C-alpha cells in the first residue's frame, strides 16, 4: 500500500491553541525534533503575520533538515491585487522556505458573506496565487479551507475551487474540516467525490491530503477515514494541540495508520520514539502531559484491576491492543484498593523486593493497601510511598533518618509576595541536625529545609533528587 506523507503544523496551527506558545528559538528546536522523528513536512509559521514567525524563518535559513521539508504558511492573494504584488505571497517567497502552504475559501458562504466578493473572482485568486508560488520554484500545498462544509452547501463550487488549485499547479490539495463538525461517513463520501472529480476534470493527477479539527472529538477518526478513502497526506499536530478543541493528534494518527492499518508513515525506529517526541513537545509548550493520551500517555498501558494484571502477566494481548514498546511506551502496574496479589507481585519485582513463593507476603501487602486506601492513601500515584509501605509491612525497612520535628510558617507583607519558612530537626545514626530554609510556599520551604538537612549525611543522593509535583486534598 502507498505510504502516508506526514505534515506537521504544531508550530503554526498548534500555537493557536490556548496557552500554547513557543519562542522563535524553541520553534527551531521543536522543528529539529520533528525532523528527527521522521516527519516529512514541517509547517514553521506564517511569515509576514508576526515578528516571531519572521524571526523563526531567519533562524531556519542555516538549518539543513535530514529529510523534512520546511513549509511557510499563508493565504491566497487579496482581492484586487496581483499575485506578484501581494505582500503575503511575497513574504512566503522571502522566507526562504522551499515549500508553501496557502489556504483559500471553499465554502461559498465565506466568499459571498465574509470576503464579500464574486465567486468567480475567488477562483481566480486561488489559481493565480498557486501559479505565482510555483513560478518562484516552490512546492505548493493548497489548503481547501472549510471544504466539507462547502461541499455540503454548494458541491459544484467546492469542486471548482479544487480545479482552480490544480490549474495553478498545486503539488498537493488538502481538504480541511476547519470547523471540526464533520462525521466520518461524510468525510469518506466527500473525499471519494473530490478524488473522482479531480481524476476526471483536472489535466494532471494531484494527490489529496486531509486536515481535521477535533471539535466533535473525531479528528483522528476523520483523518483515518480520509486515508481509507484515498488521501495520502495527513495534517496534524503533536499531542493534538490547536485552536478550540485542537487538531488531529499525530501521536495517535501515526500508530493507527502504521500499526493497525499497515500504512507506512515512519521507520519502526522512529515510531519507537513517538512517546519521547510527545513529551518533548509538551515540555517545550510548558503543558502538563496528559496521562490518558492514547499510545504515548503514561496510563496508556497501565493496569490497575487485579484481574487485568493477572491476565496480562500470562498473555499481554488479553488487555493490551499493541505492544507498548512499538511506540516507546511501557507497561505499568498500579497498586490500589482494586489490586490483587498479582499487582503486588509484579510491583515488588519491579522494586527489587523478593516475596515468599507461597503468596502469603503478597496477600498481606494487598490487605494493608486496601486498609490504607480506605483511610485516604492513594498508592497508584505515589510509587515511592508504596515502596516504603511494602518494606515496612514485610519488616524489611530500615529508616535512613528519624524525623524529630518540623515547623512551617507563611508570611505575607504588603506589596510583597507570600513566602514561607521551614525548620526541620532530624536524627541520623544518633546525630541530630537542625536546619532551616525559605521557599515560595510551604511545600517548597519544607522540601528545601529537609534537603539541606539530609544533604549533610547523603549529599550525592540528595543532589540526584528533585521535587517535580505534589497534590493537596
The biggest beta sheet reads: 8 strands, parallel, barrel
First-residue to last-residue Cα separation:
53 Å
Number of strands: 13
Structural class: alpha/beta
Overall outline: elongated
In round numbers, the mean pLDDT is 92
Strand order of the largest sheet: 1-2-3-4-5-6-7-8
Low-confidence stretches: none
Share of residues in strands: 15-25%
Q: Please, what is the oligomeric state?
A: single chain
Number of helices: 18
**Helix content class:** 40-55%
- Using only CA atoms, what is the Rg? 28 Å
Task: Explain what you see.
- The chain is of the alpha/beta class and 473 residues long.
- The protein is 42% helix and 16% strand.
- The protein is built from 18 helices and 13 strands.
- It has helices at residues 24-36, 51-60, 87-94, 108-115, 119-135, 147-153, 155-168, 184-201, 219-229, 250-260, 268-271, 274-284, 306-314, 341-351, 360-375, 383-393, 442-455, 459-463; strands at residues 5-8, 41-45, 69-75, 99-105, 139-145, 172-177, 208-212, 233-236, 302-303, 332-333, 402-411, 419-428, 431-439.
- An eight-stranded parallel beta barrel has the order 1-2-3-4-5-6-7-8, surrounded by nine helices. Strands 11-12-13 form a three-stranded antiparallel beta sheet.
- Strand 7 (208-212), helix 9 (219-229) and strand 8 (233-236) form a beta-alpha-beta unit.
Task: Provide the descriptors you would attach to this structure in a database record.
473 residues; alpha/beta; eight-stranded parallel beta barrel; three-stranded antiparallel sheet; 18 helices; 42% helix
Amino acid at each position: 500500500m502507498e505510504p502516508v506523507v506526514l505534515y506537521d503544523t504544531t508550530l503554526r496551527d498548534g500555537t493557536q491553541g490556548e496557552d500554547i506558545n513557543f519562542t522563535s528559538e524553541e520553534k527551531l528546536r521543536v522543528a529539529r525534533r520533528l525532523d528527527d522523528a521522521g516527519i516529512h513536512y514541517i509547517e514553521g509559521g506564517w511569515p509576514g503575520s508576526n515578528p516571531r514567525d519572521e524571526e523563526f524563518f531567519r533562524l531556519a535559513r542555516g538549518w539543513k533538515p535530514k529529510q523534512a521539508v520546511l513549509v511557510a504558511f499563508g493565504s491566497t492573494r487579496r482581492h484586487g491585487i496581483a499575485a506578484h504584488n501581494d505582500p503575503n505571497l511575497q513574504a512566503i517567497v522571502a522566507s526562504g522556505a522551499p515549500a508553501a502552504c496557502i489556504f483559500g475559501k471553499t465554502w461559498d458562504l465565506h466568499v459571498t458573506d465574509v470576503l464579500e466578493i464574486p465567486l468567480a473572482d475567488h477562483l481566480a485568486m486561488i489559481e493565480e496565487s498557486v501559479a505565482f508560488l510555483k513560478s518562484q520554484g516552490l512546492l505548493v500545498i493548497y489548503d481547501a479551507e472549510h471544504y466539507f462544509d462547502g461541499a455540503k452547501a454548494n458541491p459544484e463550487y467546492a469542486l471548482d475551487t479544487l480545479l482552480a488549485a490544480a490549474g495553478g499547479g498545486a503539488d498537493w490539495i488538502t481538504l480541511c474540516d476547519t470547523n471540526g463538525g464533520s462525521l466520518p461517513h461524510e468525510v469518506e463520501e466527500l473525499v471519494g467525490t473530490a478524488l473522482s472529480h479531480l481524476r476526471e476534470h483536472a489535466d494532471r493527477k494531484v494527490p489529496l491530503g486531509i486536515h481535521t479539527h477535533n471539535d466533535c472529538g473525531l479528528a483522528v477518526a476523520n483523518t483515518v477515514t480520509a486515508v481509507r478513502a484515498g488521501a495520502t497526506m495527513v495534517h496534524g499536530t503533536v499531542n493534538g494541540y490547536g485552536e478550540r478543541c485542537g487538531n488531529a493528534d499525530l501521536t495517535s494518527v501515526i500508530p493507527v495508520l502504521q500499526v493497525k492499518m499497515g500504512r507506512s508513515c515512519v521507520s519502526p525506529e522512529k515510531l519507537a520514539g513517538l512517546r519521547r517526541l510527545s513529551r518533548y513537545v509538551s515540555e517545550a509548550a510548558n503543558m502538563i502531559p496528559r496521562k490518558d493520551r492514547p499510545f504515548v500517555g503514561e496510563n496508556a498501558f497501565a493496569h490497575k484491576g487485579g484481574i487485568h494484571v493477572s491476565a496480562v502477566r500470562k498473555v499481554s494481548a488479553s488487555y493490551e491492543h499493541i505492544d507498548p514498546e512499538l511506540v516507546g511506551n511501557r507497561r505499568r502496574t498500579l497498586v490500589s484498593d482494586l489490586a490483587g496479589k498479582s499487582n503486588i507481585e509484579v510491583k515488588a519485582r519491579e522494586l527489587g523486593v523478593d516475596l515468599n513463593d507461597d503468596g502469603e507476603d503478597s496477600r498481606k501487602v494487598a490487605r494493608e493497601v486496601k486498609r490504607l486506601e480506605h483511610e485516604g492513601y492513594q498508592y497508584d500515584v505515589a510509587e515511592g510511598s508504596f515502596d516504603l509501605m511494602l518494606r515496612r509491612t514485610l519488616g524489611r525497612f530500615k529508616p535512613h533518618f528519624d524525623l524529630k520535628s518540623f515547623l512551617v510558617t507563611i508570611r505575607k507583607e504588603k506589596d510583597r509576595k507570600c513566602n514561607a519558612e521551614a525548620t526541620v530537626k532530624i536524627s541520623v545514626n544518633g546525630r541530630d541536625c537542625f536546619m532551616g530554609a525559605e521557599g515560595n510556599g510551604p511545600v517548597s520551604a519544607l522540601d528545601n529545609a529537609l534537603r539541606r538537612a539530609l544533604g549533610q549525611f547523603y549529599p550525592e543522593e540528595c543532589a540526584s533528587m528533585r521535587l517535580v509535583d505534589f497534590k493537596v486534598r
